[in-house]
Amino acid sequence: MSTRTTCLALAGLLLGPLAWAVSMEFGTFAPALFCREGPRWGVWITALAVVVTLAGAALSRRGYAAGHGTLRFAAALGALLALLLALPLALQLLATLVLSGCET
Questions:
Q1: What is the DSSP code string of the chain?
Q2: Cα-to-chain-centroid distance, residue 13
Q3: Could you tell me if 73 and 8 are in contact, meaning their C-beta atoms sit under 8 angstroms apart?
Q4: What is the rounded distance in angstroms from the CA atom of residue 22 to the CA atom of residue 13?
Q5: Number of other CB atoms surrounding residue 16 within 10 Å
Q6: Choosing a second label site near 14 at 20 to 30 A (CA), which of 3, 43, 52, 53?
Q7: What is the rounded CA–CA span in Å between residue 95 and residue 60?
Q8: What is the pTM of this model?
Q9: What is the distance between the alpha carbons of residues 57 and 54, in angstroms, rounded to a whole number?
Q10: Which is nearest to 95 in space by CA: 16, 36, 40?
Q11: Tens digits of residue pLDDT in 43-101
């Protein structure tokens, strides 16, 4: 199997949790930054995390189609994990759209 197939298969296992972790870390300290006038960076950062997570799922799906055996299982697991993590990220995106960060 090629390195490209391996990278595609593992994309969901890496990109999904990484995007979720960055979004969660940013969300813990960022509300202090969002409680002011100006652009709402939380919306853009969370939307980017959702896009990266869904891209990881799509890449893992492509790795699933190209892989065999254990690599195919890892690709399916990566795609499902990325889709699972896309749900809380989408809910966090909805919350950042509704709430301003200034609520106490």
A1: --HHHHHHHHHHHHHHHHHHHHHHHHHHHTHHHHSSSS--HHHHHHHHHHHHHHHHHHHHHHHHHH--THHHHHHHHHHHHHHHHHHHHHHHHHHHHH--S---
A2: 10
A3: no
A4: 15
A5: 28
A6: 43
A7: 28
A8: 0.87
A9: 5
A10: 40
A11: 888 999 999 999 999 999 999 888 888 889 999 999 999 999 999 999 999 988 887 76
Separation in Å, CA 36 to CA 22, 54, 90: 22, 30, 23
Phi-psi region of 39 (alpha: psi -120 to 50; beta: other; left: phi over 0): beta
For residues 68, 74, 77, 78, the Cα torsion angle rounded to the nearest 10 degrees is -110
* Structure tokens given for 1: 């199997």
The position carrying tokens 């709402």 is 40
Return the amino acid letter for 77: L
User: Is-contact 13 76, C-beta < 8 A?
Assistant: no
